[in-house]
Amino acid sequence: MDGVAAAWQRWLGSPLRDAALAALLTFILVLGSLGEGHPRSASDLAQFRGHPVPHPTAALALVAVAALALAWRRRYPVAVLAVSVTGVAVYSLLGYVNGAALIAPVLAVYAMATQVSARRAVILAVVTLAVLMTATGVNNPFGRYSDGAFVLIPGMVAATALAGIAVRSRRAYAASVRDRAEQDARRQVDEERLRIARELHDVVAHTMATINVQAGVAAHVLPTKPEAAAEALQAIKTASKEGLRELRAILNVLRQADDADPVQPAPGLARLDALVEGARQAGLPITLTVTGEPFPLPAAVDLAAYRIVQESLTNVIRHAGPASAAVCLSYRPEEIAIDVTDTGHGPKAGGGAAVGHGQAGMRERAAAVGGTVQTGLRPGGGYQVTARLPADGALLSAEGARP
């Protein structure tokens, strides 16, 4: 059934359909015009006042041309209108009854109005009206102004022109709605892709930095201090296990994107102790200080705070050289303050894309919840990352930021 419906829809919009409808309309209008040209009583015959009766074949050919032109109304609406109006106008000027024939240019007016601007449609409709009324009145078999068709022409042309303009406006509105919906969908996809890229960067960068440092330590001390090498390998195992767990959580969310809730909670400040302990196992002397009374945070703020600390420690491990670090987390009434400092030399100038992506990712995460991140060298040496995130998520999450 779906295939039949699809085939029917394709046929409805095909040139074959237009040609078939034009042929059917031509048949009807030619028959109607032929009937109008055959009066059946002496009183009817008297009304023609010497005009040609019945219609010759050549005259009916004008009606046929005016109607057959409608087969091309979608591709050449203005040209079709011109051909149709010209055929009926000549037919009328020859003194034939044009009641049925007028249907062809009226339909051409509608087709034209659905495809051109409203201003152009009005101008062409007025020109059509003037031509048809003039041609009908000049040589009308029933008297210059007495024919019913002459009276109906203004209403027919105006109604079809306005109907065509309304249809075109509705189509344009529907198209704009579709375009807006597609743009919103693309924007949401881009935002989700960026969010996933940030998540993967933070997870992979932190895990691989820890593994890289510990692998170097193990290779260095293995010949002389097997126990230290074993500790380094244990740290690699722990870091890789934690990284795999977070990657599985991200992939599970992607696999079940249609579910109402993710299958695993996103990391947050509740796991900050484990994050700091992992950095210690990676060989980074680090202290953690928490001030203020902890309180529940919006999920977006909680995740942003965790990732900012994680990325800061990753950069310390990778770029600070031999150094120690300190993480200070302050719960304040209006905001969460994060300060991560180290005693190293900081990232080198032109230190590579990873550093740039990491710091840009921190700023993007903070901005996404209405916060800020500042980074730079400390006056007394070392490097510092300072983040301020609103406790209530001033962005009001993604919904509040979208128009």
Structure overview:
The chain is α+β, with helices and mostly antiparallel strands and 403 residues long. Helix content is 64%, strand content 9%. The protein is built from 13 helices and 5 strands. The chain has helices at residues 2-12, 15-36, 42-47, 57-68, 77-93, 103-113, 118-138, 148-221, 226-255, 272-281, 299-319, 353-368, 397-401; strands at 286-291, 325-331, 335-342, 372-377, 383-390. A 5-stranded mixed β-sheet has the order 1-2-3-5-4.
- Termini gap: 41 Å
- Sheet with most strands: strand arrangement: 1-2-3-5-4
Strand residues, percent: 5-15%
Indicate the CATH class of the largest domain: Alpha Beta
Which properties best describe this structure?
single chain; 403 residues; alpha+beta; 2 domains; 5-stranded mixed beta sheet; 13 helices; disordered C terminus
